[in-house]
Amino acid sequence: MFVGVCKNRNFSMQQMALSAFAANPSSSYSNTLSGYCVRQSERWHKRRIGSRIRAQAQSQLQYRKLGDSDLVISEVTLGTMTFGEQNTEKEAHDILSYSFDQGVNILDTAEIYPVPPKKETQGRTDMYIGRWMQSKPRDKIIVATKVAGYSERSTFLRDNAKVVRVDADNIKESVEKILSRLSTDYIDLLQIHWPDRYVPLFGEYSYNPTKWRPSVPFEDQLRAFQELIDEGKVRYIGVSNETSYGVMEFVHAAKVQGLPKIVSIQNSYSLLVRCHFEVDLVEVCHPNNCNVGLLAYSPLTGGVLTGKYLDANSGISKRSRLNLFPGYMERYNASLAKEATNEYVKLAKKHGLTPVQLALGFVRDRPFTASTIIGATTMDQLKENIDAFTSAPRPLAPEVLDDIESLFKRYKDPTIL
What we know:
Pfam families: Aldo_ket_red. It comes from Oryza meyeriana var. granulata. By secondary structure, this protein is of the alpha/beta class. Among the domains are: 2-57, no CATH class; 63-266, NADP-dependent oxidoreductase domain (TIM Barrel), CATH 3.20.20. The chain has 16 helices and 10 strands. It has helices at 2-7, 12-23, 28-58, 89-101, 124-133, 168-182, 218-230, 244-257, 275-278, 281-285, 315-318, 321-324, 335-350, 355-365, 379-391, 398-410; strands spanning 63-65, 72-74, 76-79, 106-108, 142-147, 187-192, 234-240, 262-266, 293-296, 369-374. It is globular, with a radius of gyration of 27 Å. The termini are far apart.
């Protein structure tokens, strides 16, 4: 009865009771009823406030500390590798501005961008970003970039080189050129794009012992970064396309030699590419172990997980990256990957989600993901990608995750050729 009285005073019996209690202030029952109503009102008020806070949190991007650094980064990182190839400078600036306005505070670039890398366009991405940053508060933007790893094909990156290495001279030359193109005095996060030593890369999954080669010692690489940090040109360092062995060696060398520790790892991670990271890098990077934050790239596997490539004859498929650049990321377009993608698209529909919400929501919710790198060549794509982080239920429902795991058991990393 008390709840009814508190909610609705129009019922005659409730009104009579209240009148009687009001006429007798000494009534302990009246005091009890009055106190109960106040407490109920307070509870409802707190619930309403709590609901509003949860709704607001659901509609906004979240932020996380990156590894052992002082960088607090948005859960979305803007990838920029299409700037200067698929995107004009104006389009790039529009994409950057919209992302910034939505709360994205970290952007990812690299000295080899745009992709596909070639001498004629190399560095355009940085220049587009640099000119955009001139009108923005530099301390509100976290710039993550990458120095190239071992390469015999990308010698155009250096003034005089027969091969690109990750040694002191290469690192310093790379950073000076990056700073110039970006028109900035410092880099927030400098990563090694891929290792100096041999490792299986970009679709290769098996280590070939016959490809082993001498490489620059881990401590020498860290010493070169230390100099740049001491000069104020770099704040923090990280790795990319790295293995458990590499992460452990970098962390060990830093600890033993008193050198800067890596705070991040930028590796491919998605519904179609899980094993490489989940098998043991999750343990290595755990906060209680090496505390290295994952910046997950290709969460949509080059756009494949949107389902747009399922119909090879569609206009959007023909205009998209995997068809514009034959052979590029072909592992994502292989038959088994397509089959798995089709199943994930159906799974999303089953649970009332878009394929983008499913794919990005999955990566977003992984406890080891510090931030997810998204890219877009159109504003519509960008809006859909950013909106997916706030429109998809947080976290994804248990039944959704159960269905994902069922599919994963059938299609374990179907991009392996």
